[in-house]
Amino acid sequence: MATTTPGRAAASTREYSAGAVGVTVFAGILMIMTGVFHAIQGIVALVNNNFFVVGKDYVFTFNMTGWGWAHLVLGVVVATAGFFLFQGATWARTVAVIAASLSIIASFLWLPYYPIWSLAVMAFDVFVIWAVTMHGRDILRAGEVPVGK
After folding, report:
1. Hey, CA dihedral for 46, 52, 55, 60, is it positive or negative?
2. Where does the sequence pass through the membrane (predicted)?
3. Which of 99, 128, 138, 126 is nearest to 27 (CA)?
4. What phi and psi values does residue 102 have, to the nearest 5 degrees?
5. Could you tell me if 25 and 142 are in contact, meaning their C-beta atoms sit under 8 angstroms apart?
6. What is d(CA 89, CA 76) in angstroms, rounded to the nearest whole number?
7. Cα(47)–Cα(53) distance, rounded to whole angstroms?
8. How far apart are CA 125 and CA 35, in angstroms?
């Protein structure tokens, strides 16, 4: 029987779920891909200001150069968070949720420029947030379980 000190919870003896690890790995891959896509959109916006076109009546209008830099920086942050998500660290999961949330906001504001793609990226980000918050610890547990077990 495990003993605990006051104020500390007993260590979890629950084994990891291989399916949950797969979902978390998939979320990390989606984050890396989404980050690369954001970075590519940023580079395109920086190189060619006239590539993205928006109608006159949209409430949110932005300078393409500023938007390009925002997407480029956000893309690097999201891809980096996705890479470190494979480590299973709590800080990486926290950064992943924050980065995916920022990506959802950026994609929502990007709707008039690329509507279908923005909706797809928002769906990816919602999946990432769900996977990381529900199954994030299982990837860490998978690294602790002996191979022969």
Report:
1. negative
2. 21-47, 67-86, 91-110
3. 128
4. -65, -35
5. no
6. 19
7. 14
8. 10
d(CA 20, CA 130): 11
**Residue of 77, 75, 83 lying closest to 25 (CA atoms):** 83
Please give the Cα distance from 45 to 49 (Å, whole number).
Answer: 5
- Please name the residue that has the structure tokens 């979320």: 27
Number of Cβ within 10 Å of residue 6's Cβ equals: 4
Which amino acid belongs to residue 141?
Answer: R
Amino acid at 61: T
Residues 100 and 105: their CA atoms lie apart, in Å, by 9
Report which of residues 40 and 148 the model is more confident about.
40
Tens of pLDDT, residue by residue over 21-75, are 777 788 888 889 888 988 998 898 889 877 776 666 666 666 778 888 988 998 8
| pTM for the model | 0.68
Q: What share of the chain is helix, strand, coil (3-state, %, to 5)?
A: 70, 0, 30
**For 66-115, how does the pLDDT look when each residue is reduced to its tens digit (9 = 90+)?**
888 988 998 898 888 888 887 767 788 888 889 889 889 988 888 887 88
